[in-house]
Amino acid sequence: MGSAATWLRAGSCGSGRTRWGARAKSSRRPGEDLAQAKEKLNARLATAKASLDHMNESVVQRAKQSAVVTNEYVHEQPWKALGASAVIAFLLGLAVARRN
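Above: the chain's sequence. Below: its structure in token form.
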């Protein structure tokens, strides 16, 4: 019977609302929820930034490696590179000419 009396005194229906439909008061201060949400958001932003920095480093490293390999290939086989460039330029010219 003690729990029923406690329930009646508190005016709660168990759903966080009083018997009259109003929200039960939280034990936290109003700014606490906002501060906690801000902390979570800042933590997520820091994690996302670190992830982006890591991806950026990876992409830059791969681009540099590709440039080095391409440079070596062109110096080792200049005629093949020149021929490939001529074919690409010709095909690009055909595509532009057909478009107009």
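The chain has a mean pLDDT of 82.
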